[in-house]
Amino acid sequence: MIRGKSIEMQFHSEMLAVYDACAALGFRPVLLRRMVILKGGVKAARELIFQPGATGLERLAQAGKAEMAMEGLMTHPRFLPLFSASEIAEAKRRLQGTGSGGRSRGRRNAEVTNV
Q1: Residue whose C-alpha is closest to residue 92's, from 102, 106, 104
Q2: How far apart are the first and last CA of the chain?
Q3: Residues 49/74, Cβ–Cβ less than 8 Å
Q4: Quick one: average pLDDT of 29-56?
Q5: Distance CA 14, CA 21 (A)
Q6: Longest dimension (CA), the chain
Q7: Which pLDDT score is estimated for 3?
Q8: Sign for the pseudo-dihedral over CA of 22, 40, 90, 81
Q9: Burial code of 10-19, b = ≥16 C-beta within 10 A, e = fewer?
Q10: Higher-confidence position of 91 and 104
């Protein structure tokens, strides 16, 4: 554990880093960033995990960096105590690409852009 930082604050910092990782790939998940800033990382993740297309997972996966996505953070052993079994299961499902496949709002064929 990072000295002096609670696990919730560590998760919050990592969630802000998800936005930065996406931005470096030319995609800015504004909803994710706004919710993290307004509600905190844990509460934002709990709400966003059931909103496909809002977390940047697709773009990070295209770049081979899915583990850097919110879903990857949620399933990291250090952060598991922060989430319910159903939230963790959904994060794992998304990472594995099972179920509905996830993307919404017409982003299925979106390309990663370099800015």
Answers
A1: 102
A2: 34
A3: yes
A4: 90
A5: 10
A6: 43
A7: 57
A8: positive
A9: bbbebbeebb
A10: 91
Closest CA to 83 of 52, 44, 112, 54: 44
| CA dist., res. 46 & res. 54, Å (int) | 12
Q: What is the phi/psi pair of residue 90, to 5°?
A: -65, -40
Closest CA to 95 of 81, 78, 115, 75: 75
What are the strands, taking DSSP E only, across 19-105? none
Dig out the tokens for 87 from the structure.
């939230």
Backbone angles phi, psi at 54, to 5 degrees: -100, -5
Please give the Cα distance from 73 to 93 (Å, whole number): 14
Q: What's the helix, strand, coil split of the chain in %, to 5?
A: 55, 0, 45
